[in-house]
Amino acid sequence: MKSIVIVGGGVAGTITANYLAMRLKDEIRSGDVKVTLISDREKQLYEPGLLYLIFNRFEEEDILRDVKYLLDPQVELKIVRATRIDAESSKIDLEDGSKVEYDYLVIATGSRVVPEDVPGLVESGHWFYNLEGARRLREGLAKFRKGKILVSVMGIPHKCPVAPIEVTFLLHDFYKIHGVRKNVEILYTYPINKVFTMNNVSELVEEMFRERNIGYKTFFNPLEVDAERRVVVTLEGEEEPFDLLIAIPPHKGSQVIIDSGLGDRDGWVPTDRYTLKAEGYDNIYVVGDATNLPVSKAGSVAHFEAEVVAENIAAEVKGLPPTARYFGKAMCFIETGFDQATYIWFDYETPPKPVKPNKFIHWMKIAYNRMYWLTARGIL
Ligand SMILES: Cc1cc2nc3c(=O)[nH]c(=O)nc-3n(C[C@H](O)[C@H](O)[C@H](O)COP(=O)(O)OP(=O)(O)OC[C@H]3O[C@@H](n4cnc5c(N)ncnc54)[C@H](O)[C@@H]3O)c2cc1C
Predict the structure, then answer these.
(1) Which residues contact 180 (CB under 8 A, 6 or more apart)?
(2) HSE-up (13 A, CA, CB side) for residue 320
């Protein structure tokens, strides 16, 4: 019997598992193949929903589902943390003391924020990139009525490259609706020489920021937050004061990747950009945020990659050559307010061309938010 093990119960892990269950249903039924998913959490979080939760437009129950509910019943689910992956012996140590062996491994362990890497940030800043941070920021935004909000991207790469831009536009609309926009200064900062990594998007966003009286600073690399003086201190020697700091903290890969020696310094797994195999390992694939690929850390990317990984593993199991390839396909909606959005798609060869923001695209995004759980189950 062939054992396929997926580590990580986020969007990348569950979709890969469900595609594998579909493609290998006969082999699973006959007992020739077993698909196991290891997740350290019972529930999956629909992270794009955090953007709405902080403005009180989504409840927690909208953005959390049991991983078990999302998985094809043919997939065995183990709720336990993987503590070490031994790629030489193809064995995984689990926190409960047991071990799992695999013939094929899919690493889908995602990314996490590490606000503690910026001194002073935990004490004096907010973030919305995980549930705990988003809950706290929701309270902070509801109380905030006057002063300066600093939205600061504190490291690249991070999940959903467009989310910091989206939150900035939504802050503008939020305080406008509340009638206090004139009392609230909004400043957005980004580490490189433009407000976003891609030129077309950057140009559009800069223009829209100016129209809305949203300030922005580039080449802004925070080193620390002085909690007492309420200023962000940068590598470039600047000090930027704030009344409310919304940080996009630095990100890292999962601790198990670092502890197993499978990643680079920050825990991203070196991955072949086309086959999605972990470099140097023929039976390990990587999917979603866990890779070191030069693509967005985004749910849509995880989705497109999962199709390739599942198709290739299914082919290998059936004794066929694994010929599916990933070409860097990504698709992102960009909310530019509470009633308008644009979207971009791109791949390794094709840069994005954002269209003029409009209501229709916004409503498509809202519809997608509601349909997400069907895509996670592999139904759409
Ligand atoms: C605010 C916000 C808005 C976003 N908006 C969008 C958007 O509009 N569109 C879009 O496409 N993307 C968006 N994203 C990005 C998207 O949510 C992520 O790219 C996506 O969730 C990545 O999926 P993943 O499965 O690779 O990783 P994750 O979602 O991080 O899942 C990894 C899972 O693996 C588990 N895990 C880690 N280590 C272990 C271990 N040792 N043992 C067992 N389990 C382990 C983790 O607990 C987690 O459940 C957004 C993200 C944020 C934060």
Answers:
(1) 145, 146
(2) 9
Q: Determine the residue type at 188.
A: Y
Per-residue model confidence as pLDDT tens digits over 190-210: 999 999 999 999 999 999 999
Output the average pLDDT for the chain: 97
Tell how far the Cα of 299 is from the centroid of ligand 1, in angstroms: 7
Structure tokens belonging to residue 177: 């609706």
Ligand 1 midpoint to CA 341 (Å): 22
Determine the Cα–Cα distance for residues 358 and 363; give it in Å rounded to an integer: 9
- Pocket-forming residues, ligand 1, beta carbon under 6 Å: 7-13, 38-41, 47-48, 50-51, 81-82, 108-111, 128-129, 159-160, 163, 254, 256, 288-290, 297-300, 302, 332-333
Domains of the chain (ranges plus CATH)?
Answer: 2-110+254-317 (3.50.50.60), 114-250 (3.50.50.60)
Q: pLDDT by residue (tens digit) across 258-315?
A: 999 999 999 999 999 999 999 999 999 999 999 999 999 999 999 999 999 999 999 9
pLDDT of residue 380: 64
Contact 109/290 with Cβ under 8 angstroms? yes
